[in-house]
Structure formats: C-alpha cells, structure tokens
Amino acid sequence: MIAPYITTWSAEQDLPSRVVEHPLGGIGYADEGLGDRDAHGVLWSRIGVRAGTGRPEFGKVHPLRQRRAMRKLLCQVCGGPADRTDEGVLWLLRDYRGDWPSWPEGMASTEPPACVLCVAISLKRCPALHRGAVAVRVRECPIAGVRGAIYQRGLFGPTAVSAANVAYEDPDICWTVASALIRELKGCVQISLEELIATLDA
To answer: What stretch of H or E contains 197?
Structure first.
C-alpha cells in the first residue's frame, strides 16, 4: 500500500468551477451538472479522479473518496469495509481526550472509520498518530452535515469567507461548497490498541 484510500494524488487537480448565486437561493456552479450535489442537495467541490497517478499528497484528503468512505463506512486506509462488531464500528482517532470529559462522544468526525489491519499499519506509518492515538467502537454514527467553504454575496459574485462544519439544517448549508462528509460519533467505547492488534494473531 503506497497511500491511504482517501489521499489525494498529484494528478488529481481541482476542476474549473465558477461559483454563482443560485436562482432558488444560495450558490451553485455556472455550469452545474447532476453530479455536483449530493442527495441532500449540497454543492460539492470539484476535483479530478486519478488515484495512483503522480505522487500521493499526504495530508490532503480527496473529497469524493472521503465522502464515499463515510457514506459506506469504508476503511479510510484500504477502502474495504470498516471493522464492525456488536460493540460498533471501529474508528482510529488522534488522542484529544483532554478536549472534554466524554470525548469523543458527540464528536463531529470527518475521518472515516478503519479496519483492524489498517489500524496496525497506521500506527506504524502515520506521523500524526505517533503523538497519541485512540481506538474507539462507535454504536451510532449518523451523517450530520459537511465541512466546507462558506460563501456570501460579494460585489462580483459569491466569495468564500470561512471554512466550517455545517449541519444539514443550518441555513448556511445552501451557501457551502462541501469538501468532507461529517458523521457524529455516539455510543463511543474506547478499546485497547494492544488487544485490538493482538486479534490479528489470534
């Protein structure tokens, strides 16, 4: 494996797109097509799809593969099904237990889940996880919104003003160009990384 499934490759460039005000409110693309919005009607960023071509751009997530992995609960590393047991779907998260007492309960995650084998690989190869990682089983993980660029009216057309997590019921959703799908993590149980990886040898 050269790069995680959700990684963007250098040949996958942003595609031409001009953001305009939509006649029904919010924003759209001047040449908008059927594939530019998701099932909730949210506008998505455009990018080429050429995985494996060029070099992997680690740290840059491919919006369409991230969205697919989140929708189908696929492992963010290999693209296969995420690990699932009676306790829930497996997530490997950077350790932010100091953020709030019940972390990661209620967390809005843009990182897709994982499979056990890829957890072991990630712990060895991902520099970000060397600073601390936590394995979590999640019983419920409803799709809650998107992360993206929020636009507002400008003198010469809509202008991006901020990047934020936006819930589907938020009025700003129609002014957002999404780049990642969000799931809310509920019913979280932290599990031992050592015991999890030990199951590979069982």
So the answer is: helix 193-198
